[in-house]
Structures are given as C-alpha cells and as structure tokens.
C-alpha cells in the first residue's frame, strides 16, 4: 500500500487503535464492529488525491484530541475499490461516520477545521446519547446532550435536534426534556399529529412535568387554529367590523398557525383592550396560553406580558 511519508509518520505516532488503515477483509471488524462501541470516522482517500492530503492531518489531529472517544479508519480506494463502491463513494476525499454498525452522517471534500471539530463534537454527543463512551471518561451527561439539542432547536437545526432527542429517548425513555424537545421539533416542522401522538403516549409523569407545559399549550393552540378559518377571510371580517371579537380571536388563532405570532398577540391584546370580559376573558386566557407555548424568555412573551399588565391595570 502506498502512503506519503507524512502519513506514515502520523500513523506511527498515533495511539494504537485510534487511527488505523483498513482493507476490504478487515472493514467489518475495523468499522462495523468497532462502531458498536464508539463512533468511527471513515475516510476514503487515494495517494494521488491532493485534497485528501489536506484533510487527513486535520482529521487525525481531531481524533487524537478526543483520546480514544472515537477512531479514524482510512480506506485507500485504489486498494479497496469494492468497499468504496458498496458505500457509493464517487469522489475523494469522502468521509462517513458510523454508529451502531450503520453510517449516520458524512461529507465529501475538504472542510474547515472549525466545521470538522463541530461535526466530531456532534457525533460524540450522538454516541453518548446511544450509550457509547469509547475510551473517554469525559463523555457528556444526558442533560448536557439534551441541552445541546435544545441549542440546535433554537437555531432551527431541526434535523440535528430531532436526531439527538430521539437517541436520548432510546436510552432514557423517561427524560422529560427530550420528550418536550422532540415534540417541539415536530411542532416546528408543522407535524402537529406526530407531536400530539408523542404527547398522548408519554407516561403520565412526563405529561405532568413542567418541561411539557409549553408542548401542551402549543398543542391546544394548534387544535384551535385548525378550526379558526382562513386568515384572509377573518382579516376581511375584522377590517369590516373592529368590534367583531370572535372574528378577531379566530384571526389570532389562524395567525399562530402561520407562525405570525407577533400579529396574533397584537389582536388578542386588542380584544382585551376593547372588552377584557368578552367570552369569559377568552382573549386574556389565550394570551397566557401563548406565553406558555413561547416560553418565559421569548421576547414576545416578555413584551406581551408587559402590554397585558398595562391594559389590565390602567
């Protein structure tokens, strides 16, 4: 097998087992079997590939920095064309991440080191959520993993968040934060039915947990929105008669379904301003439900509560 001198030196100095060259006969043991215990990064490369020579040292550096929490397996496509063909490798460098005997992620081409570091960190979190710690004693706790998923959800990286929450629930089915986060992912993607199903099938202790308060409120809002009518028709009714509180209330519900939350809050506040007692204070109660669904730190919640207090106590 032909490798460059720099690659030989790196392989010689790398801790045993963290970075290995594999072949077609050994692929199952080096990658599939090993990925049952820890995440395995597989790089398909070729001696004639310039970008491969750029990427490989960066990957080796990152793998070494994790001190046995993950491993790098290198596959020379010139010597192992069958493996490359089976995995659909069309160009090099191509990198796959394996967990539990299956490829779970991958990319093609050279990536910036910062992006590769983030990619490896996310892979380790997925592995930890699946009960894999490799040789590392510093794997994050389940709560840390859920917190990372929460950040992905806040950044609207729904695929990543959903994947992490689901992995956590596979290992710890009674984690309320993971239940709530996964339901919020479904709601954010517009899959109300799946969110409702998850909520309905959750253990009672989970449904009653504070983490699920926002989910319950959001599901109730979504159910009302489905019966509200079209935004255009309701908008026309409100413009024709500003005192039609039912039309305005329904308009607010419909706007929520289109994620026009600010406009919905404004219409509900307007009902409270005009007639706070209307329909047994339905607008005020709907506002409180919105604030629960948005969360206490959401700017719309903070501003909306201030405006509601001003109206109620003026």
What's the layout of helices and strands?
Layout (H helix, E strand, L loop, with lengths): L4 H9 L5 E3 L5 H7 L6 E6 L4 H16 L5 E6 L4 H6 L7 E6 L2 E7 L4 H17 L12 H13 L3 H14 L4 H13 L3 H10 L2 H4 L5 H14 L4 H10 L4 H13 L3 H15 L2 H17 L4 H14 L2
Parallel strand pairs: 1-3, 2-3
Antiparallel strand pairs: 2-4, 4-5
Helix pairs in contact: 3-5, 6-7, 6-8, 7-8, 8-9, 8-11, 9-11, 11-13, 11-15, 12-13, 13-14, 14-15, 14-16, 15-16
Based on Cα principal axes, name the global outline: elongated
Tally of DSSP helical segments: 16
- Arrangement of strands in the largest sheet: 1-3-2-4-5
Rounded to an integer, what's the Rg over CA atoms? 26 Å
N-end to C-end Cα span: 82 Å
CATH class of the largest domain reads Alpha Beta
CATH H-tier superfamily of the largest domain: Glutaredoxin
Structural class: alpha/beta
Structural overview:
Helix content is 61%, strand content 9%. It is an alpha/beta fold. The protein folds into 3 domains: 5-112, Glutaredoxin (3-Layer(aba) Sandwich); 142-224, Serine Threonine Protein Phosphatase 5, Tetratricopeptide repeat; 227-308, Tetratricopeptide repeat domain (Serine Threonine Protein Phosphatase 5, Tetratricopeptide repeat, Alpha Horseshoe). Strands 1-3-2-4-5 form a 5-stranded mixed sheet, sandwiched between helices. Strand 2 (40-45), helix 3 and strand 3 (71-76) form a beta-alpha-beta unit. The longest helix is centred in the middle third of the chain and has 17 residues, at 113-129. The N and C termini lie far apart (82 Å). Residues 1-16 have low confidence and may be disordered.
């Amino acid at each position: 097998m032909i490798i460059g001198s720099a690659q030989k030196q790196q392989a010689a100095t790398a801790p045993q087992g963290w970075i290995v060259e594999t072949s077609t006969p050994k692929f199952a043991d080096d990658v599939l079997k090993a990925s049952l215990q820890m995440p395995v990064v597989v790089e398909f490369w070729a001696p004639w590939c310039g970008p491969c020579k750029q990427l490989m040292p960066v990957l080796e550096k990152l793998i070494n920095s994790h001190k046995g929490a993950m491993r790098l397996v290198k596959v020379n496509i010139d010597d192992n064309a069958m493996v490359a063909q089976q995995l659909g490798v069309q160009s090099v460098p191509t990198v796959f991440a394996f967990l539990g005997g299956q490829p779970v992620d991958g990319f093609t081409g050279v990536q910036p080191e910062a992006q590769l570091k983030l990619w490896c960190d996310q892979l380790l979190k997925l592995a930890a959520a699946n009960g894999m710690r490799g040789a590392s004693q510093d794997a994050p706790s389940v709560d840390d993993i859920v917190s990372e998923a929460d950040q992905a959800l806040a950044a609207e990286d729904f695929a990543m968040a959903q994947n992490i929450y689901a992995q956590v629930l596979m290992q710890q089915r009674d984690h309320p934060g993971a239940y709530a986060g996964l339901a919020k992912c479904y709601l954010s993607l517009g899959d109300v039915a799946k969110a409702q199903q998850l909520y309905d099938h959750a253990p009672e202790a989970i449904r009653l947990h504070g983490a699920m308060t926002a989910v319950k409120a959001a599901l109730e809002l979504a159910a009302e929105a489905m019966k509200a009518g079209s935004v255009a028709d309701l908008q026309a009714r409100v413009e024709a008669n500003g005192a039609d509180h039912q039309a305005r209330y329904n308009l607010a519900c419909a706007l929520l379904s289109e994620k026009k939350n600010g406009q919905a809050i404004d219409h509900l506040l307007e009902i409270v301003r005009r007639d706070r007692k209307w329909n047994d204070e339905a607008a005020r109660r709907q506002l409180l439900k919105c604030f629960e669904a948005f969360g206490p730190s959401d700017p719309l919640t903070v501003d909306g509560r201030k405006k509601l207090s001003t109206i109620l106590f003026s």
